[in-house]
User: What shape does this take?
Amino acid sequence: MRPDSHGAVPTLFGRDGFEAFVLRLPATTLVRQWHDDSVAKLGGKIFALLDKEQGEVWLKVPEMSFSLLCELPFIRPAPYFARASWVAIAPQSPLREDEVGAYLVEAHRLVALRLTRKLRRELGLCG
Assistant: This one.
């Protein structure tokens, strides 16, 4: 990511960095909802959010990753979303920024796979 006007590089755990990252993913839309959280959607379906209050990145992960990630410190099942294999990753987690970014890309892919073929085509996600 590029430095901001103060020379700092935005982090995925801050609004500017999170929003810039997810908006680079194809057909992503961004809304602010609930407690002014940044919510990333694809075809109207949520694939990730930044919990503004706690600075956690919440995202959908593969089922196998869900169990493994939840064993790491500062990563927990995301409240209200855990049954759908979502985790909440705190900035203090052992994951590097690039690893969190890779999980965001994977969350986008997982949600894209659940969209109808027609909607994927409309969003330019078919190949």
